[in-house]
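Collaborator request, handled under Task 6.
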Amino acid sequence: FNSINNKILEDNDKIVNKMILSFPDGNEGLIKLKQEHYNEKLAQIVSNKVMDISGNGLNYLGVHEAYDEFIQIKDPVYKYPESNCGRAHFYAPVKKLFGIFIDTYWFDCLIIWLAAFTLYLTLLHDTLRKILTYLGNINIIQKFSKKPKRL
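Structure tokens returned to the collaborator:
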């Protein structure tokens, strides 16, 4: 794990150095960019930082053990979903549908369009009125309250 961590830190340093070189004023431009666009409260929500009960500051929740397995609590925004039917945790970067990873933005757009199309077809064919008429014709009270026949 140490070698993997060192590799990730090296990659992160390369990205930061590349960003610094892309600004005309170097490190000052990167600091200014972060000051203008970084939202501390959103970062706390996404990384799952919580206020310590004693008021000592922000702590990470880390990992939770349940049913003989470990569940990642820290930084859920970097975790991939496990469900294969589109369900995912809050702030998931992708959704998994039938084994295919789809960006969350496009998955949500697809669901909204499918819902709109379904509602359009429902209105076009007057399905809601037909269902309500059918349910209104079923007289449940008469069906269950039949008087017994006398012999």
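The cover message to the collaborator said: "The first strand starts at residue 49 and ends at 51. The first helix runs from residue 2 to 22. Please let us know whether this matches your experimental observations."
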